[in-house]
Amino acid sequence: MSNTLPKSIERLIVSLSQLPGIGPKTASRLVFYLIRNNQVDLRGLGEAVTGLKDDLVYCGVCHNIADSDPCVICADKHRQSGMLCVVEEPLDVLALERAGFTGLYHVLGGSISPLEGVGPNELQINSLVERLKANSQIKEVIIATNPDVEGEATAAYLIKLLQNLPVSITRIARGLPMGGDLEYADELTLSRALEGRNPINLNAKV
């Protein structure tokens, strides 16, 4: 970092550079944007960052990040209580909410990754089993871990662990995204798309 920069600017650039996806150049652009733009409430921004974790808790039911325990989703009596979607991280909950999922969630807090020292005991897997045993309303467990090596390993572990419980176990479908070209798809994506193919209703009106 250049020693010609004021200390306050240098300190903020270094701090922002520690965030995922933000390198020194992007951090520098953000800092100078904040300096130039009078419309940005820097005091409010600073207070929001400072108090970010103060009012946050982990839901004792689903382990999602929330501002109350239980969280608003677990406390909502209008959710479909028979469906439980198992995800890796809180951001996955946001994605599924945007997609219109109306069931309940269970956040594992990551995925099984031996190389990083993350095993089943480091995740919220035991609490998932206990939750299913204690709640007879749950009829279907939807495994929605990521379609990568760690996510697939986690899904396989969960399927083996839960197969003797009185619930239906399903896995989210994976395949080609809308607007995607076959020539640019990798082999795993294409094989998943083939596995998840659906029958065509020949009597349907076009």
From TrEMBL:
The signal peptide annotation in the UniProt record is: none
Q: Which domain of life is it from?
A: Bacteria
Which terms does the record give in the GO molecular function aspect? DNA binding; zinc ion binding
Any one biological process term the GO annotation gives: DNA recombination
What SMART domains does the record point to? TOPRIM (SM00493)
Question: According to its UniProt record, which protein family does this protein belong to?
Answer: Belongs to the RecR family.
Task performed by this protein: May play a role in DNA repair. It seems to be involved in an RecBC-independent recombinational process of DNA repair. It may act with RecF and RecO.
This chain belongs to which protein, by name?
A: Recombination protein RecR
Organism from which the protein derives: candidate division Kazan bacterium GW2011_GWB1_52_7
Task: Cite the source lineage.
Answer: Bacteria, Bacteria division Kazan-3B-28
